[in-house]
Amino acid sequence: MILSIESSCDDSxxxxxxxxxxRLLFHRKISQEAAHAQYGGVVPELASRLHAVDLPRLLGEAxxxxxxxxxxxVTNAPGLSVTLLEGVAMAQALSIAKxxxxxxxxxxxxxxxxxxxxxxxxxxxxxxxxxGGHTMVLDVRGFDNITILATTMDDSFGExxxxxxxMMGLGYPGGPVIEKLAQKGDPERFTLPxxxxxxxxIAFSYSGIxxxxxxxxxxxxxxxxxxxxxxxxxxxxxxxxxxxxxxxxIFQQTNPRDFAIVGGASxxxxxxxxxxxxxxxxxxxxxxxxxxxxxxxxxxxxxxxIDAFFLERFSDALSIEVSPRTDxxx
Length: 330
Ligand code: KG4
Ligand code: ZN
Description:
By secondary structure, the protein is an alpha/beta fold. The chain has two domains: 2-117 and 293-310, Nucleotidyltransferase, domain 5, CATH 3.30.420; 125-288, ATPase, nucleotide binding domain (Nucleotidyltransferase, domain 5, 2-Layer Sandwich), CATH 3.30.420.40. It is 42% helix and 19% strand. It has ten helices and ten strands. The strands form two sheets. It has a five-stranded mixed beta sheet, sandwiched between helices. Strand 7 and strand 8 form a beta hairpin. Helix 6 crosses helix 8 and helix 8 packs parallel to helix 9. The longest helix is centred in the last third of the chain and has 30 residues, at 225-254. It is globular, with a radius of gyration of 20 Å. The two termini are 25 Å apart. The protein binds 5'-O-[(R)-(carboxyoxy)(hydroxy)phosphoryl]adenosine and zinc ion.
């Protein structure tokens, strides 16, 4: 079995997966969302203190499996350094105490593997990763063969939902609350700009939409409930239109047979519908992770760790490093 640990942001999670069958035997997650909600975003210092309390609790629950471990996998990048360190310290202790190898797992690669929990991996695949920290289209051909085809020039897709929610005083995380509110809103009442609409550049940008939302919020203060819903609907429509517009250009160039959406924001129903239509237009098959594995979790870390295990990608327990960086990732 492999024990996996996730602490890259505001979720503490531990999973145990059987290596040969890829069967998930144990998975527990404690989300810190409620603790951060009052601040409108994740407070790193608070997050790391909560991981320090919650990870040992979860490890205690995984105790029945600890005698059968052959490796420990842990997210080491990208993420918040102070929270990654909590998971890595636990993995180091387990590795040294039990004499088992440690596997450093890239968080973005783990999101890709959320598609393969309890399944064989399937490549090649075009993957759209939309989370709080990233917005990327990836050409995924294998464990070690991943190319970034497009990324964001500024804010990420999920982050733009979080900031829109914060501007309207709706708490954190913004994704689910904006999605819900948008269902009650009129997306035509306000018009927001679609970024890079006339640019040939294949990249994403969400700071322009965010600033336009800021101006709308200022101009309509105090916001009544219907105006909040209409802003949410206009924002979500613009955010998805931009995502679709640039991804469609990549579809035109690559004509993928298999396309997947992963990351926390892949739970969004309007996103799923928009890309189901795009896939139908191009005759591609759409792959989605189960809802419970869209947001950060340890099951995807364990599944990614299994492929790393077979490739013997082990790290030295004493020199494993954490990194917040995204640039050199695969
Ligand atoms: O993958 P994830 O759990 O953490 C990161 O790696 O960042 O993604 C969290 C992000 C947050 O920005 C959250 O607002 C967004 O995913 N999100 C959503 C939805 N659910 C979560 N965004 C849009 N619509 C949703 N339903
Ligand atoms: Zn994530």
